[in-house]
Amino acid sequence: MQKPAATTVASRAAAKTPAKKIEDKLARLGLRTDMDLVLHLPMRYEDETFVVPIRDASFMGGQSVQIEGLVTACEVQYKPRRQLVVTLADDTGQATLRFLNFYGSQLKQMAEGNRVRARGELRHGFFGPEMVHPIYKMVLEGAPLPVALTPVYPSGEGLPQTYLRKAIASALGRLAWRDTLSPALRDTYSLMPFEDAVRLLHNPPPETDEGALADRSHPAWVRMKFDELLAQQLSLKRAQVARRAKGAAALPVIGALSQAFQQGLPFALTGAQQRVLDEVRRDLLAGFPMQRLLQGDVGSGKTVVAALAAAQAIDSGFQAVLMAPTEILADQHFRKIAGWMEPLGIEVVWLTGSLKKKDKLDAKQRIESGAAQLIIGTHALIQDDVVFARLGLVIVDEQHRFGVGQRLTLRNKGLGLSDGIDPTQIVPHQLMMSATPIPRTLAMTYYADLEVSVIDELPPGRTPIVTRVIDQNRRDEVIGRVHAATLEGRQAYWVCPLIEESEALQLQTATDTHATLSAALPDLQVGLVHGRLKPQEKQAVMDAFTRAEIQVLVATTVIEVGVDVPNASLMVIEHAERFGLSQLHQLRGRVGRGSAASVCLLLYQSPLGQIAKQRLAIMRETTDGFEIARRDLQIRGPGEFLGARQSGQAMLRFADLETDQWLVEQARTVALALLRDDAVTVEMHLARWLGAKEEFLKV
Asked: Domain Helicase C-terminal, which positions (predicted)?
C-alpha cells in the first residue's frame, strides 16, 4: 500500500538528469512506483564495510577486495594501447589501477595527492599488484565506511548503481508499510514480516550470512519467494473461478456414436486412458467450460482419448475441432481419426493453408453450415473467415507450440449466434494435449488454473527402446547397422539438425546425408523430408515411407511429433548434442511403435560440453518422459518448458521451482484459504506483486 503522493519515481530524478530520460530507463526495468522499486531486489552483494591494507590485499588473489590510498602518479600510456595508469599508495605498499577505457575527467579526478577508495580483484602484474577497471570513488581521509553489505541491482544501460540505490532508499523511506499476511499466518509458516525482510535484503548487516543471501535460503529471501508464489497461485486460481463463472454448452450425450466408436477400436483402452477419458467426460457434462491439460508420454494414446471426447460433443449435437501445429501432425490425426469416424457416418473435414482455393472454400462452407462435425487442421482454423455453426469442443495438440493469442482466437469462435446466446459469455470446452510431460511442480505453478490429466501407462505390446550413444567417427558402422535392419524388413529414420550447410556450426546436413546414404546403400530407397518442401511433396514422401516403399527416411525435425510408422524400428539422430532433451525424447518416440525390438542411436561430435554430456547420459539411462522432463527442468529452468503459453509473462524472479517445491505447496494452500475468506487481502497482494502483469496468467 502506498502513500498517494508516491506516484512515479521520475519526479524525484537527480536534478542533473532529465526526468523523462530517467523515467524511461526505469520503466524499461518495470520500475514505475515505489513498490516496484522496493521489490527490485539485489542480485548480489559486495562487502565494502572494511578496507584491506594494500600489502595484505596482495596475498588475496582471486577475490574482490577494497583498498584505499593516495594517488602518487597518474599518466596516460600508449603502449601496448591507450590506457590510464594510476599508482595508489598507503602506509603498507602501493598498487596500480589500470583503466583501458576512460574519460578525460578521470585524469583530473586522479590528480596526485587525491584519496581513492577502489574495489576489485588485485592481481600480480608485470609491475606489481594491479586492479584493472576497479569500481572506485574519491573520498576524504577518515570517510566513514558502509555499515551494511552493498547491494548490486539488476540494471539497464545508462542507469548506474548509485542512482538505483538512492532511488530505492528513497522509496523505502516513503512507503506506507502493510503486511498482506497476518501474524498468525506468518507464525504458521515461519515467515518473516514483509517490511523486515525487504529492508534486510536491501541493507543486510555485515554479520548476515552471505552464503544464505547468495543461495537465497535466508529467511528474508524465503518470505519474498513465498509472496511471489502466493501471488501467482492467487491469480491463476482466480482465473479458474472466473472461467467457471462463464457459460459453456453441456455435452451430456455419450450416445450411439461414442459407443460404436469405442467398440469398433481394434484395441482396448488402457486403464490410464479410461481413467482420463472419464475425467474429460465428467468435465464435458458441466455448464462451465472445461479447460483440461492432457499429458501423456510419447505413444501413450492421447489421440484416441481426444477422439472419444470429440465423439461426445458430436453425440450432443455440437461440432468439435482439433488444431495441430504442423501439417504433418494434423494430417496424421486426420487420417487416423477419419479412419475411425467416417465409417460411422461422421463428416470429418480437413483445413490447412496449403489447400487449393476451391477446396478451402468448400471446407469453410461445410464448417459454417454445420455439415462438418469434426474439423481437423492447422493455424488456418483461426482465420477470421472460418465460422463455426455450433462449436462445442476445441482440442489443441502440442499446445505449448501455439501462442496465447492463437489459442484464444480459436476458443473465442464460440458457439455461433444461432443459439441466441451472448457469445462473449459462452465459450467452448477446451482440451489441450502435450506429449512433453510437464513436471508436477511446474504444472502446479504455471498451470494452477487448469485441470491436469496424465496418461501414465503405455499400451501393451510397445517394445522398450534401447538407446546407444556413438561417436560420429563410427558412422560407417551405423550405416551398416541401418542396412542390416532393412534386410530384416524393418525401416529406419535418420534425423539431421540442418537443411543447408552452415560454416558456423559445421553440421552434417540433411541433403548431404541423403546423398551419402543413397550412395552407400544403392540397393535401398532413401527418402528425404524437410521443412522447405512443399506440403504435397512432404506428404508424398511420408506416404511412401508409410507404405514401406522407402526403407530409410532422412529428415529434419519435421518428424518430431505425430509420425506413426510401426514398421520403423531404428532411429539415428545426427549431432544429438545439438538437440534438447525434450526434442530427443520426441524423436526417439517415432520408433518402438510396433512389436519389433527398437533402437535409437545418438551420434555425437567430440568434444562434448558438460550439458551435452548430461543430456546424452539421461537419454541413455531412461525412456520415461516424466523423469526426462524432471531432469530437463533442472538443467534448463522453467522458461523454455512453458513455450508460447507464457509469451509476454515475466518468469518467476525469485523462486526456484527445483529447490522451492515445498513453498509452492504452502503457497497453494494459503491461496485457496485467502480466496475463500479474505478478498481484500487477495486484491492487495496481487496489486503489490503482479499489477498489470496479471493478465498474462489468465490464458
From this structure: 488-634
